[in-house]
From TrEMBL:
Segments crossing the lipid bilayer: 7-25, 57-77, 83-105, 117-135
Organism: Clostridium neuense
Domain of life from the UniProt record: Bacteria
Protein name as catalogued: Uncharacterized protein
Entry keyword set: Membrane, Transmembrane, Transmembrane helix
């Protein structure tokens, strides 16, 4: 059970990292790739091909990461108890997921305050996850 819980935690982390890359590839494309000269078409085409896959699978990867974290949270709770920083990280990740779901499925407008909040919370999650990893045993509510 410990190995499955750890695997789900790592799936959540790597899924989150891959989903976060979406922001960076779009930013680099907007700020740099769009300004490349015409003689760099091979590089531009290669970059945008990679970007297309990252953007296309962003939603799926985010959903998989969110589900994996719920499994990780449950199994770790059953095993050792409740990590308060872990719970905060999971709730934050699910808030990010809920905002993404709202924007992509319900609102269908890829601009607005929900997107800004989705991004801000995604970057905040970096620090919350680091805090969780550093202090998971200190701030633990035993079963």
């Amino acid at each position: 059970m410990k190995q499955i819980a750890e695997l789900l935690g790592w799936i959540g982390v790597w899924g989150y990292v891959l989903a976060l890359i979406n922001f960076f590839v779009k930013y680099v494309n907007k700020k740099f790739i769009n300004k490349f000269p015409k003689d760099k078409q091979n590089f531009i085409k290669m970059y945008r091909t990679i970007m297309r896959y990252i953007v296309k699978y962003h939603k799926i990867i985010g959903a998989v990461a969110s589900v994996a974290i719920i499994g990780h949270l449950y199994l770790m709770y059953k095993r050792i108890g409740l990590s308060v920083p872990g719970l905060i990280a999971a709730l934050l990740m699910w808030s990010i997921f809920a905002l993404g779901f709202y924007g992509a499925v319900i609102n269908k407008n890829f601009k607005g305050k929900w997107l800004k909040l989705h991004r801000v919370l995604a970057f905040l999650l970096i620090f919350v996850v680091i805090f969780h990893v550093m202090f998971k045993r200190v701030l633990l509510i035993h079963k």
